Amino acid sequence: MPEHAAASRLWFSGLCFLLQILLILLFAALVRYSPEGSPEPCPPQLNCSQRSQDPNFLQPRFQDVHVQLLLSFGLLVAFLSRYGPGSAAIIILITAFSVQWAVLMQGMLFFFLSGKISVGAQSMVSADFCTAAVLISTGAVLGRVSPVQMLLLALLEVTLCTLHEFILLRLMGVSDSGGSLTVHTFGAYFGLMVSRVLYQPHKDKRKREEQQDKGHHKDVFAVVGTIYLWIFWPSFTSTTTVHHDGENWAVLNSYFSLVASTVSTFILSPVLYEESTPRMVQLQDATLAAMAVMGMAGEMLLTPFGALIAGFLVGLITPLGFRFFTPVLHSKLKIQDTCGVHNTHGLPGVLGALLGTLLTLLATADTFGYRLELVFPLVTQGSRTVTDQALIQLSALPLTLLLATLGGCITGTILKIKVPRCCADTQYKESPGLQEVLEEGSEPSASGKEELGISTLV
Description:
Blueprint: H1 2-30, E1 31-33, H2 55-76, H3 85-110, E2 112-113, E3 116-119, H4 121-141, H5 147-171, H6 180-198, H7 208-211, H8 217-238, H9 249-273, H10 280-297, H11 304-331, H12 341-361, H13 365-368, H14 371-375, H15 377-380, H16 386-415, H17 424-430, H18 449-452
Parallel strand pairs: 1-3
Antiparallel strand pairs: 2-3
Helix pairs in contact: 1-3, 2-3, 2-4, 2-8, 3-4, 3-5, 4-5, 4-6, 5-6, 5-16, 6-12, 6-16, 8-9, 8-10, 9-10, 9-11, 10-11, 10-12, 11-12, 12-16
């Protein structure tokens, strides 16, 4: 009905207005520009002595991270023809809000100096990493939550993601510069748990492959998105790594992992799907998985063949996950994973954490050289042994899974709270760019919500 559609638009517009005004007031009261890029020594309170102090190094990577977030993620979520530009627009909105909120949340814990939050290239990159975790989570629930729910999810997840990152990186001293745990694993399982909580029974009529429109434009989005991943993702995984004399192993290891994962997709996909060549969406998934597995291990691998092996294995695991494990998630665990984040971020992130633990056990002064002090400063300072560091790296994995699942359950429960809204069927008709995914081919009916299995807020 028109009055419900108008109320929905006003509610969404009003929430955006209130959140932005709140952010402006908080920035005015708390946020100041940081001295970290100045020629003077970095203040010890900012804890940036182990990261690059060269603004000429940070600025290009800072730009690459933003391009990665906006273009790559925005295009990758548009592979369903029911979405197109609508989903990309929501991704831009979530990115714009999450970056601002992450600057405040992370600033309180990581960049608080003399009663103010210091903002510079380093803090903005950290905020982008937190935003990436939110975007990964939205991939799991895309099409089953409204824009208002998306904003609330971002508000809650940024807060929990910052707390999780503070526990791992600051309190435990975990080395995870590329975000295998803090970005990929946390974001994937957080989103999956939100999806599970929001799940509702619906009528199954035909398989998911039959209900998703296989229009030509989804391959176009996948082609462009994958190209951007190839160009910018190695910079994304290496932005916060150690940097010395232009040598950055994380970039090289990321590329080697990426190429091996792509080749392994051509090996396995024709066997699983009886196609002569993989579809672009499958290559896109292989690219995402290859970078997730390098998040923790990227700056630890000492030889290129190690990155090739890791990329090759994760390139095999990802299509196997889509072929065999995703149906189990949906049918047995009642988890609807719209964009397959479990196979492209969750499993590769877990594998990356295990690989990082193994490499930590092998870290010695002879093998790492000067990089041992940069990657594992507490080991070189004598505060812990290599074995202790490896155990801490390993213990960070179950802790991440615990915090992600608990946080996802709490967030999903909050998103189900009833607030003023319009009926689902009206929203479906009035906002074609933000249409819900019709699970298992169910068609929108007069009852709307029962068959869609969606808890809408607007």
